Each structure stands twice: as structure tokens, then as C-alpha cells.
Backbone:
């Protein structure tokens, strides 16, 4: 059985593979919450101020969870920015 890369729990179904990590549904939800929150902040700031938030500062708020999930801040940043770029390019 696969084992969650973050919490070590055995998972039989409902897990997600992100990059080279397996996340159980609980850890995947934590990952999604971080990404969704930061993506929303990026979109909001982009459409209201035509800038992006300082993601390094924003990621500090989630440092503990990011470390628990065993992802690097740079990976999270790239993941968010690529999703942001994908959403923005659809508008064009």
C-alpha cells in the first residue's frame, strides 16, 4: 500500500500524487487550502492593483504546514504562479 509522504499514513485510495510525493486525502486538502488561498490573493491583487502579492511573505504564514507536507517553498511558489499564469492566459 502507498504511504503518505507527509504524515506516513497508509492509504489505499483517495490519495494524490504531486510531483514525487504521495499525499493522503487529509494532507492533499491542506495543500489545496494553501494553493487556493494564495491563488485567490494573486488574482485579487492582479485584478485590483495590477500587481502580485509578495509570495515569500505570504508563504511565511503557511511555513509550518508546508514543512509538514515536505514541500519546498519554491515548489509551492512555482505551482501557484503556473496556475495563475494558466488562468490569466485563458482570459486573453
Residues:
Amino acid at each position: 500500500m502507498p504511504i503518505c509522504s507527509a504524515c506516513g499514513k497508509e492509504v489505499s485510495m483517495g490519495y494524490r500524487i504531486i510531483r514525487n510525493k504521495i499525499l493522503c486525502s487529509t494532507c492533499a486538502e491542506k495543500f489545496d487550502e494553501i494553493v487556493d488561498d494564495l491563488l485567490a490573493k494573486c488574482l485579487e491583487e492582479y485584478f485590483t492593483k495590477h500587481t502580485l502579492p509578495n509570495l515569500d511573505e505570504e508563504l511565511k504564514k503557511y511555513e509550518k504546514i508546508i514543512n509538514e507536507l515536505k514541500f519546498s517553498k519554491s515548489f509551492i511558489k512555482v505551482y501557484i504562479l503556473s496556475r495563475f499564469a494558466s488562468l490569466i492566459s485563458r482570459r486573453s
Summary: Residues 25-49 form the longest helix (25 residues). Residues 28-91 form one domain. The chain has a mean pLDDT of 94. Residues 56 and 73 are 8 Å apart (CA to CA).
